[in-house]
Task: structure prediction
Amino acid sequence: MKIRVLGCAGALAAGYRTTSFLLDDDVLIDAGSGVAELTVDAMVEVDHILVTHSHLDHVLAIGLLADTVQRRRAQAGRPQSRYTHCPKRCKHYARTCSTV
Result:
């Protein structure tokens, strides 16, 4: 198992990215602005997003990630949807992002 820290700051500033971790090559733990540390090819490989809670610094990049890789995932024969997993308290948010 390999964990890569993409971002761990609580706010945006030069040189800082908000919370995101890449587990192996296909699981994101949170999707803050740290997702921008990934190449587009690496983003295409993400199949699961684990959201710890629905604060903006943990979910900011979910929609942008989907927009960035949609065409590439289709060309690669990968499913358009990613599985978003989250605590019960933010299920509404996960449903809103279910096409991500």
Observations:
- The helical segments are 40-44, 56-59, 62-75, 91-96.
- The two ends are 25 Å apart (CA to CA).
